[in-house]
Predict the structure of ABC-2 type transport system ATP-binding protein.
Amino acid sequence: MTRKPAIRVTGIEKSFKDVEVLRGVDFDVEAGSIFALLGSNGAGKTTLVRILSTLLKADAGTATVHGFDVGARASDVRESISLTGQFAAVDEVLSGRENLVLIAKLRHLKGPGAIAEELLARFSLADAGDRKAATYSGGMRRRLDIAMSLIGNPPIIFLDEPTNGLDPQARIEVWQTVKKLASQGTTVLLTTQYLDEAEQLADRIAILHRGTIIQNGTLAELKKLLPAAPVEYVEKQPSLEDVFLALVGDTGETDTGGPGAITDDGTESDVQTQKEIQ
Ligand SMILES: Nc1ncnc2c1ncn2[C@@H]1O[C@H](COP(=O)(O)OP(=O)(O)OP(=O)(O)O)[C@@H](O)[C@H]1O
Ligand SMILES: [Mg+2]
């Protein structure tokens, strides 16, 4: 059985004055999958996301989102998606709870208070729910932003560089959130310039370079493009990220003495433990 793709992009072109940013972009995103659009700064990732979310018109080509043409059926597209932009869109004067209630009300949903409550709990923001968002850390703000975009359960979500500027624990939390969403059937298109993020999350990865998709495949398919390196005996060194996470834990809590915290007697460091596990 072939399912219709959740997103289909065909020959999309876009220039800003004489700068050709997108020169014919094509790809499909299968429903319920995580698709990563990978590209350097200025590659055109945000431009493409803005076209797919109807904020910007393409110069040529077509795109359908949830079966609707982004040009002709823009309002249907908007009802089927949510967009978490590259820069967190939370209202800093409001508390986390108030931000969520506001969006639920704007979407005319019943029980905005209960919706806010459920999302605060799901995104580990219950304790901070009544604080102004201005006092949140970058990771908390990003989680609130994603929580806001899930109100109304859109079938497709766009995440533009969802972990930009986050510390390793906050990134892992966002990754877990995204994986969970996809496992529940939401289609996720995310952009990133972090290779490990695409590697961790995506079912398929497309590389946007000089205005076109130069490769599109699963991680295994992309890895096959390079010949395997000859096997040599090398001691596996932990990456700095392994060390950092072993020292501070990957729970997102920095002060609880959770997994990976250094014990008072300081004898057994978790760096050692991590190494043993590997
Ligand atoms: N409204 C605009 N007017 C003129 N040029 C623009 C406009 N929007 C984007 N551009 C240009 O288009 C190119 C692609 O920008 P875009 O923001 O899509 O890149 P990106 O891949 O999202 O980069 P980053 O990783 O830095 O977010 C850049 O050269 C940018 O300067
Ligand atoms: Mg961008």
